[in-house]
Amino acid sequence: METFLQQILNGLVSGSIYALVALGYTMVYGILGLINFAHGELVMIGALVALQTVTLLSGAFPELHPVFLLLAGVGVAVPVCMVVGYLIERIGYRRLRNAPRLAPLITAIGVSFLLQTLAMIIWGREFHVFPQLVSTTPMQPMDGVVVSPLQIFTIVVALALMGGLMLLVNKSRLGRAMRATAENHRVAGLMGINANGVIAATFIIGSGLAALAGVLYASNYAIAHYAMGFTPGLKAFTAAVLGGIGNLPGAMVGGLVLGLVESFGAGYIEHLTFGFLNSSYQDIFAFMILGAVLIFRPSGLLGERVADRA
């Protein structure tokens, strides 16, 4: 039972990060019908920009409290990723909205490689240690179950961001414009909605969430490097497909479910395979789920809600 509860906790931590990134995929798909495969690189940029900011500030002001360093890192990383996300939409995708579907897909892959290469030039090939700005001192609420303040912080922040996004989409004027644009951006334009502005805002919001997810991911794994966005980006895409691409609650559910399945798989795979595989093979579960969903339920767990997608 202790192992079971520990795996639930671990799965919620990783699943909440996947869900944040998956929201960016599903928002863009909901409005444009486009899979933005460059979205995972925004996770990487957010982590590395935050690391650079924290390193510079801690060197110049060694007495600064870690909380201020974290807030400063996030305060720089989020706007930078928002600008990058806007430029991706404005330069890379806007002219391809009416192009065949293969054109924006290839462009997204190209943008992903471009961002990775630029990050490699700026920050180098080496792995960077991300400082522990939130305490990782283990607490033991019950026998056999260990939790750290960083894990609690990750889950709480992710849930707060997901709740805030749902309020934005369902209750705000921008959210109504996003849903209208998702329905039909040409008709929305005839009704007075600035479709280009709404689409740009969607990329900006998704990029901001990716930056925050990058900081949380780097904080939990204490590492950052130029290629770190590929795996969580691919898993987040799997989560979006699992929940129902274009469906915001589906992306959240998909991320949490994927995190739990991956965690349970890592915890029990050695027993299930009689020692043939170990926890280092946990990534196979994400791709097994992706294949199973595409074969047996392509619309995902919650399905695609056309009228409400954003």
From TrEMBL:
<keyword id="KW-0813">Transport</keyword>
<feature type="transmembrane region" description="Helical">
    <location>
        <begin position="67"/>
        <end position="88"/>
    </location>
</feature>
<keyword id="KW-1133">Transmembrane helix</keyword>
<feature type="transmembrane region" description="Helical">
    <location>
        <begin position="190"/>
        <end position="217"/>
    </location>
</feature>
<keyword id="KW-0997">Cell inner membrane</keyword>
<comment type="similarity">
    <text>Belongs to the binding-protein-dependent transport system permease family. LivHM subfamily.</text>
</comment>
<feature type="transmembrane region" description="Helical">
    <location>
        <begin position="42"/>
        <end position="61"/>
    </location>
</feature>
<keyword id="KW-0029">Amino-acid transport</keyword>
<protein>
    <submittedName>
        <fullName>Branched-chain amino acid ABC transporter permease</fullName>
    </submittedName>
</protein>
<keyword id="KW-0812">Transmembrane</keyword>
<keyword id="KW-0472">Membrane</keyword>
<feature type="transmembrane region" description="Helical">
    <location>
        <begin position="12"/>
        <end position="35"/>
    </location>
</feature>
<dbReference type="InterPro" id="IPR001851">
    <property type="entry name" value="ABC_transp_permease"/>
</dbReference>
<dbReference type="InterPro" id="IPR052157">
    <property type="entry name" value="BCAA_transport_permease"/>
</dbReference>
<keyword id="KW-1003">Cell membrane</keyword>
<dbReference type="Pfam" id="PF02653">
    <property type="entry name" value="BPD_transp_2"/>
</dbReference>
<feature type="transmembrane region" description="Helical">
    <location>
        <begin position="144"/>
        <end position="169"/>
    </location>
</feature>
<feature type="transmembrane region" description="Helical">
    <location>
        <begin position="250"/>
        <end position="269"/>
    </location>
</feature>
<feature type="transmembrane region" description="Helical">
    <location>
        <begin position="100"/>
        <end position="124"/>
    </location>
</feature>
<feature type="transmembrane region" description="Helical">
    <location>
        <begin position="284"/>
        <end position="303"/>
    </location>
</feature>
